[in-house]
Amino acid sequence: QLRLQESGPGLVRPSETLSLNCVVSSGTIIRSNYYWGWIRQPPGKGLEWLGSVYFRGDTYYNPSLKSRVTISLDTSKSETQFSLRLTSVTAADTAVYFCARHRGDPGTIVDSFFDYWGQGTLVPVSS
Amino acid sequence: SDELTQPPSVSVSPGQTARITCSGDALSKHYSYWYQQKPGQAPLMVIHIDTERPSGIPERFSGSSSGTTVTLTISGVQAEDEADYYCQSTDNSGTSVVFGGGTRLTVL
After folding, report:
1. Whole-angstrom Cα distance, residue B16 to residue B18?
2. Chain B residues whose beta carbon lies within 8 Å of the beta carbon of residue A111
3. What span, in angstroms and rounded, lies between the C-alpha atoms of B79 and B12?
4. pLDDT of residue A77
């Protein structure tokens, strides 16, 4: 059974960079037809997709956050981790951040979906 | 518009049928997916490719599509179905994932 686990700081200061890691167990991220994505959910609100990365390095980002988001594979460590960086955070970035396996065809995220999710990690942004 | 619009809330009594709609221009071109989210949990996909039910999802969950509107139907609603439900698709350009705003299903 594939499992995903987010990890990162418990608190981020305004204007700083939020960095999260997602470890994928019982599998590798180097697989065709799978992207690896981040989705967030502010307290009491809905889901917002941040972006996804393919094992070859192709990336897709939410246009509203594209200037602040970077999603990458941590190939220097292993074939089982990917990460999120969100720069210049404000209180509006306070949310539960989920990593997820994003199933889709190579070269496009049309008709793609999320079939495995991490449990999520709450990241408050506060001074 | 690339937005997906859902009603904020739907309420039904146990045993009745709940229908949750999701509307958006992109739905006439791209497939839809539905997720169930219970408090404190990650979302769980209950319908994919508009109408297909993933393995392990009860038969009372079904999906349908017509033009720019897709519908999640839960027949014979049970107390355990009380949750938030989100639709998801791709935007018109095919380069961005979009979620609906979510619908809270209350079982009376």
Report:
1. 7
2. 30-31, 49, 90
3. 10
4. 63
